[in-house]
Each structure stands twice: as C-alpha cells, then as structure tokens.
Amino acid sequence: MPHDHSDHPHALLPSDPALRVKALETILTRKGLIDPAALDEIVDTYQNKIGPQNGAQVVARAWSDPKFRASLLADATAAVRDLGYFGRQGEHMVVVENTPDLHNMVVCTLCSCYPWPLLGIPPAWYKSDAYRARVVREPRKVLADFGVTLSEKTAVRVWDSTAEVRYLVIPMRPAGTEGLDVDALAALVTRDSMIGTALVQAPT
Amino acid sequence: MSDCPTVSAPDPVFLQPWHAQVFALTVSLNESGCFTWSDWVTRFSAVLAQHGVDRELDGGDDYFNAWLATLELILAEDGVAPALEVNRLRDDWERAYLETPHGAVVRLDTP
Predict the structure, then answer these.
(1) What are the boundaries of each domain within chain B?
(2) Pairing of strands A166-170, A93-97
(3) Hey, which residues does A107 pair with through a beta bridge?
(4) Which three-class secondary structure string do you get for B16-29?
(5) Which of A72, A176, A195, B15 is the most exposed place for a label (fewest CB within 10 A)?
(6) Given an 8 Å threshold on Cβ–Cβ distance, is B24 in contact with A8?
(7) Interface test with A, best of B45, B51, B110 (most A CBs within 10 A)
(8) Gene3D superfamilies in the record, alphabetically (chain A) (predicted)?
(9) Active-site residue numbers of A?
C-alpha cells in the first residue's frame, strides 16, 4: 500500500539480507580485508563501464574483418584481449558462430557463468531457474518465449558455461547491412543476440 | 508524459543496491585471495541447487539470497565472520536505522 515517507520518524529500514550484507561489510572492513572504496569501484565498473557494448564491438568486427573473425574463432580470449577486453571471468572465452544451419544458445546450468569482459553482469532471467533448467530441455520453446522462431532446418545447440569456459554467440549479420561500418553494425547487436536468445535485426 | 519506462530502457545491472554490494564484496575477496573463483562457483552452485529443491528460484532476490548464504557460509567456515558476529552486527545496523532520524546518515557506533 502506498504511504507517505515523510511520516517515518526514522530512516527507512533495509531488508534483512541488506542488513546482513552491511554486517559482513562492517566485519570485513574492520578486519582490513576489504576497502569500501574498492567495492564502490567494482560496482561502478559493472554498472557503468563494462557491458554488452564490448561484445557488440567484437561481433561487428568479426562481421567486417575476415582475419579478425578467423583469429576470434581460433582463440577468442587472445583476439578480444587485443581489443582491450580481458579481466575478471574472461580467462577462457570461446565464440560460437550462428549460421543458417546452426543456432547457438548459452546457459550456465549450475549458476550463472558468463563472459563478464564482453557482456558485463548477466540479466536476471539468465540467472533464473526457469531459463537455466528449460533451455537445455526445450530450447525452441525458450526461443519462442523470446519471440524467436527458427526454420525447422536450423539445428539448435546449447552451450553450458562454466567457471573455466565462457561462451559468446556471434549472431548472423542481417541482410541489408553491407554498407555499415563497425560502429554502425555494433549498434545493432543486442546483449540477447550474443547469448543466443535473439536475432540481430536489420536497421529499419 | 507517461511514467512507464520506454521499451528500449536497459535493464538495471543490479535490481537492488544490496545485490551490487554482496557481488562487489565477493569479487573483492576473491581478488585478495580469500577463495578462488572455481571454489566460489562450486559452493554457490551447491547452495543454489539446495535453495531450488522446493521451488523455482528467480534471478533477482532468490539468486542473491543464495549468493549471500554462500558467502556467509564460506566466511563462517574460515572463521573470518562467525555467524554470531554477523547476527550481532546485523542487529546493530537494524537498531542504528531505527534510531536515526529520517533523512540523516545512518552510522554504526564503534563497538
């Protein structure tokens, strides 16, 4: 029920888990095991600096530069490192390429492993039991929930990410984008298309 | 003007501030060598599976509740943050919120 916050005589009480996190933070700070400024830096990095725009650059480059595409398919971790994308949870990245015959999807069935340097932090649906359990069992139904219908002739392959290997999907380049440069192409590439739950649409 | 977010508005990276805080705590402890990321993933996967036995977990509060439970478990086992100490400080924070006038910065008294 809506209520008037000005009536609160005291500061708004955080939820129980929020209080528990504050307790841990206090203990660890007092013991010198963490630096609150470093925590702010980590949050800022993933909220504002690292996200799917990185992966979109990689995809657009792969579409535009056959040599880069070849090096990406051969050793993605090294190829994206050369573009400046490396760091936490990016130790071993593998790209899988969509073709008219094969559509790739990525999941982490055990938790939520994900290529942070390329896509940032995964969305809530990627972390949900519903997606993690269903995508392996019924990938086409999951795709339908995302509004994607593939040709019956297109096979679907689901890749299970782990702490050791993290996958990025190279979606198919839409028709009608021949004249676009890397930045214009990158602007078309969505996060979901790099997880495999969306297709890249041509500009309208 | 509508208050509804536009369709193109990006999803927030973290749905709640405490999701971001517990995430950052964990990343920071991993980097300072408290545990390896594979150890973290193993422990976290087990807690997620356990929490998900009776019901389907969402990727928001359910997910980060399991994340927090995992971190509490590891830090209690290591003796870094025993459960009793966590509970006491949790209650101290609660009291601090209840005793701080609305609008003022909530602080914890030094023990």
Answers:
(1) 17-99
(2) parallel
(3) A160
(4) CHHHHHHHHHHHHH
(5) A176
(6) no
(7) B45
(8) Nitrile hydratase alpha /Thiocyanate hydrolase gamma
(9) 108, 111-113
Q: Could you report the predicted ipTM of this complex, rounded to two decimals?
A: 0.90
pTM score, whole prediction:
0.89
What distances in angstroms separate CA A133 from CA A159, B49, B71, one per listed residue?
13, 11, 24
Give the model confidence (pLDDT) of A160-202 as tens digits: 999 889 999 999 999 999 999 999 999 999 999 999 999 999 9
* The CATH classification of domain A52-195, taken from the options 3.30.450.20, 3.90.330.10, 3.50.80.10, 3.50.50.60: 3.90.330.10
- Below-70 pLDDT ranges, chain A: 1-8
Rounded alpha-carbon distances, angstroms, from residue A182 to A37, A44, A165, A189: 36, 27, 27, 11
* CB B73, CB B50: distance < 8 Å: no
What letter does residue B101 receive in the DSSP assignment? B
B61 vs A contacts (CB less than 8 Å):
17
Cβ contacts of A134 within 8 Å, gap of 6 or more:
A141, A142
